[in-house]
Amino acid sequence: MPQSATRQFKILLAAGLILFFAGCLFLIPLPGDKSLIAVRCLGLLILAVAGARNRSLTFWIFFAMLAGLELGLDAPAFATQLRFLSDIFLRLIKVIVAPLILGTLITGIAGHGDLRKVGRIGWKCLVYFEAVTTIALFLGVAAINLTKAGEGLVIPASAQTPPDTAPLHWTDFVLHIFPENIVKSVAENQILQVAVFAILFAIALTRVPEQIQKPILNFAESLTQVVFRFTNLVMYFAPIGVGAAMAYTVGHMGIAVLLPLGKLLFTAYGALLSFLLCVLLPIAILAGIPLKRFLGAVAEPATIAFATSTSEAALPRAMECMEAFGVPRRIVAFVIPAGYSFNLDGSTLYLALASIFVAQAAGIHMSWPQQLLMVLTLMLTSKGIAGVPRATLLVLLVSAASFHLPTEPIFVILGVDALIDMARTSVNVTGNCLASAVIARWENELAVTNLD
Fold it and tell me: Are 96 and 230 in contact (CB under 8 A)?
């Protein structure tokens, strides 16, 4: 894009954003007052004009999020009928995940045949994942103790009583890692099980003669290339799916539900932002990751994750973007799927924050030793959280039962959980993308020549 056109684009973009967010200052206008609606629509129109010659998919996904927000605010009845569009997008993404993991892991491991390198990458991943998620847990505890968002919360008498939840034993998680039927694992989108099968299959493939190995490797490589092209086709539908997801969320929930739990919402967003700036940013700087190029690579998958509240929806694009960024395919294929079970930074931070919030809302004082014990427990129970919306609430119910906390406040949290889920899912994806780049740098295999 010529320099003059770039300047014009930036001016229009700034004007559109200013007008749109100015119209969002008062989200509940006075009866009959259409001025704020007009301001937001004018802002969207200017943004559309600004992006008319911009072929960036990230821009149009962001624009669709804002348009979905506007539609959910001003036409909630219509917005709630658009969920099928976001479901179509999620289905198209889910059908990609298992073939992509199978193809990339098999070619990444068996195609190079260095099993020692695979093992070395594995233990480096576990060390990195455990260190970062532990920091996230302590940051969540610190944030909720600082704001005390749960104190004074009135729990409505209509809060539902949840079904009995069996405590999650560590043996159940270990058993769940290993697939009993690969077709069933693929059908249920059990990412970790598919990854374990692909790793074992690739190791077995390295132990057969070359004439037997080669056709399977060629098939896996062809499968990977076709799935990446399939992903590119699906991404053309991403703005529609993302916009529909945002419209449904806002239209279904409304804005009024935020008022009694606004303090929790701001605490969660503040803690997640602090984690990005105070943990992930220093890690990227210390590892020598080119920040500008990394942000450009992670912008699209993080935006998709934010709007859909589903880490899984961003996985194919995240893998493709990080490979284009310069991370070798075998590292991308190993680190990012593993991170979906062991490195969900945003979800683990929120689990710690929400657990203390439940105690505060119930008027239960937890001493620092008790909070430390809860953090240590969450270090285990937070692993293996599925990359799907609201899966964190199940782990939260289990944690509350383990520490004899009431469950009613958890159902109060449901009022804002969808909005918090958007932010924590985006942090999950960003953290996993950064992990792949850090491991590649740790292995001295980040393609520096491509980053200049």
Answer: yes
